[in-house]
Amino acid sequence: MSMKIGFIGLGNMGAPMAANLAKAGHVVTGYDVAGTTAEGVAVATDIAGVTKGMDAVITMLPNGSILRQVAAQVIPHMTKGSLFIDCSTVDVESAKNTSEAAENEGILAVDAPVSGGIGGAAGGTLTFMAGGSEAAFEKAKPLFDIMGQKAVHCGDAGSGQAAKICNNMILGVTMIATCEAFALADKLGLDRQKMFDVVSTSSGYSWSMNAYCPAPGVGPQSPADNGYKPGFAAELMLKDLGLSQQAAEMANADTPMGELARSLYAAFVEEEDGSGKDFSAMLSRFEARNRG
Ligand code: NAD
């Protein structure tokens, strides 16, 4: 059944996601402060134009404070029983806070961050990690099925964000471990292809090594083979590692590896040459360094 959908935040991810919903036959209206547009999507000039009378409003925004601001403007215009889905990656607190504000107004809310990047958004193959009530998830599921290939209902409000940042904390840590091991292997005179052949089929294997190998010319095609053009930018990894540490602080969890990964990505992006590069370019950082 065709739905009327408002889509706020037509950036790298939001524009192709909104276009896929329109292509599937939904009536989509979009809004972005930067004036960006998306294929098949009507453009509203303000928040009211993208929220009033909609069956669902979807947001895809840079961070939690912008989400809170936008949600405060959106929720009063929404119809009771309609659906609010936030697909941005934000802190768990902002996700919970936004869901609660929506539910207090009789609106079904889901926090549903994604993995799969720009390619997944364009191809409709994202993975959604969703938090919220069963009723909200069931109502959102047909939209997830258009924009993605998998949607996991992780639990109550905030649990989609929790799953996302735990996953990306593992990813940041394993990418660093993989990069430093390659740099060590180089210094030990080990051929990189041999290193890949062994590790990718031994207990050191991981997605970072097997699917997204940081060494150019080794393993499947990855940003390493394209001058480390992102892919998944080092800045975005730094953002997600910051969110995991913020959550760990809030939950009183001990996450020393996550904190070390955050500080290494912070140095890479803010003080070295990591800005604008894929997060796997961390390999060149270790290559260039000596012990101590
Ligand atoms: P982006 O910066 O390209 O898009 C964000 C858009 O939001 C921009 O177009 C911006 O103009 C708009 N915006 C900002 N404030 C607004 C407001 N008040 N009202 C309306 N629009 C506003 O970012 P992106 O790469 O599309 O990422 C969006 C979210 O998805 C982020 O939370 C990011 O962490 C997450 N994410 C990104 C990727 C990726 O590979 N790019 C992967 C997974 C998750």
Report on this structure.
The model has no long low-confidence stretch (mean pLDDT 97). The protein is an alpha/beta fold. It starts with a strand and ends in a 5-residue tail after the last helix. Helices cover 48% and strands 14% of the residues. The chain is built from twelve helices and nine strands.
Structural class: alpha/beta
Mean pLDDT: 97
How many DSSP H or I helices? 12
Poorly predicted runs of 5 or more residues? none
Radius of gyration: 20 Å
In short:
With 292 residues, this protein is of the alpha/beta class. It has helices spanning 14-23, 47-51, 64-74, 92-104, 117-123, 134-147, 159-187, 192-199, 207-210, 234-251, 256-270, 282-287; strands at 4-8, 27-31, 42-43, 56-59, 83-86, 108-111, 114-115, 126-132, 148-155.
Task: Tag the structure with descriptive keywords.
292 residues, alpha/beta, nine-stranded mixed sheet, 12 helices, elongated, binds nicotinamide-adenine-dinucleotide
Ordered list of secondary-structure elements with their pairings:
Layout: E1 4-8, H1 14-23, E2 27-31, E3 42-43, H2 47-51, E4 56-59, H3 64-74, E5 83-86, H4 92-104, E6 108-111, E7 114-115, H5 117-123, E8 126-132, H6 134-147, E9 148-155, H7 159-187, H8 192-199, H9 207-210, H10 234-251, H11 256-270, H12 282-287
Parallel strand pairs: 1-2, 1-4, 2-3, 4-5, 5-6, 8-9
Antiparallel strand pairs: 6-8, 7-8
Nicotinamide-adenine-dinucleotide (NAD) is lined by residues 8-14, 31-34, 36, 60-62, 66, 70, 88-89, 114-115, 117-118, 232, 236, 239.
